[in-house]
Write a structure and sequence with these properties.
Elements lengths: L12 H65 L3 H30 L6 H19 L18
Helix pairs in contact: 1-2, 1-3
Amino acid sequence: MDNGSQHTSEPSVAALLGGIVNDVKDLLVQELALTTLEVHDTLRRAKSAAIALGLGIGVVAIGGMLLMLMLVQVLAAYTAIPLWGCYGIVGGALVVLGGVLLAMGKRQAEEIDVVPQRTLETMKENVQWLTEQTTCNRTSTTPVTRSRTPVRP
């Protein structure tokens, strides 16, 4: 008995587009969450580097002041070795320590990745996948599946 309605097993174009839109929305939410976590990690590492740089600058400044006091003592006393010798030893040690701290902070700051490469690669992959989804042959009956290889740290 034919009642005039045709039952098709293929989803309509509107249903396919709705599914793609939902997939895109879910993907963007997940990408935003991942980017937020990566930004928090980057900020944590930047804070650590800034603390090391700040300590290094402070120690070098103190060492520089002591070296200047040493120079003043040398010029004032000209031959009073014990007083300015002590200033020189302490000031020189502080400058060396500050230089080491500055080098450590600089190295930590250079290791900070402002734009995480993994996020950029994932975004490019998502754009490529979306392009493939929107330009695929509409008459094909085989569903297009997205195959993702896991990203390894």
